[in-house]
Amino acid sequence: MRRFTSGFWLILALLALWEVSARAGWVDSPNWPPLTHVLAALLRDTASGEIPMLVGSTLARMFAGLAGGTVAGVAMGLLFGASPLAARVLGPTVELVRPIPIPAIIPPLVLFLGLDNGMKISIAAITAFFPVLTNTAQGLRAVEADQLAMARTFGVPAWRRLFLVTLPAILPYVLAGLRVALALALVTTVVAEMIAGEQGVGHYLVLMQFAGRAEEMYAAVLVLAALGYALNRGFLWLERRLIGWFFATGRDG
């Protein structure tokens, strides 16, 4: 609680410094408006429904890609765990592709998918795929061998072992990867909107920049900051509800 309070006061101090620096002319530029002007623009565009509509468009793309990337990452991780041959054949390709910066993938995707939602959703999916795959594989290595052996001894079918033993055991690891993927997917979705313009917070931010409307531009930045924070806190809350037992036993450390 004390750490949160200290961080809260630091944020307030930085926001106050923003307001004072603009009012006092420390940054003598029309591109550095006072915070109060930015907040006024934010409230105006929120009340008009523009900001909620933009946020909804961005989140819809992000969550669609996140869902697809998560399913693919878990499936690939389970395949690697079940088939050493698949891991040997596909593993090098995954390791080769993973270091490629996500923005570098956008131009080829634009060529094949155009500027529609499919490209932006694909970017979010690719972003989510790798951290989920990595953590799923790590979780499979942590599954207790004696648990699986006991299930086999009692004649539990393979598909039931998957749902009764393997998936519950790897869930904390999958969620850890998903938390990383969530933050990255928001970033890459916004970047895709900035590069391949269409309705969304990223496209709005670029439009305001080129139009010289600094107040609206900074308002979009604040929206993205608040959105990222809210998504992270919401995911942590959900994670605690789903796997509270994992943290209670101290196995996360």
UniProtKB/TrEMBL annotation:
One of its GO terms (cellular component) is plasma membrane. GO terms for biological process: transmembrane transport. It is a multi-pass membrane protein. It holds the Pfam family BPD_transp_1. It is found in: Cell membrane. Residues 55-235 form the ABC transmembrane type-1 domain. The keyword Ribonucleoprotein does not apply. The chain crosses the membrane at residues 62-84, 96-115, 121-143, 164-197, 217-238. Keywords: Cell membrane, Membrane, Transmembrane, Transmembrane helix, Transport. InterPro entries: MetI-like, MetI-like_sf. Its main location: membrane. It comes from the Bacteria. Belongs to the binding-protein-dependent transport system permease family. This is Sulfonate transport system permease protein.
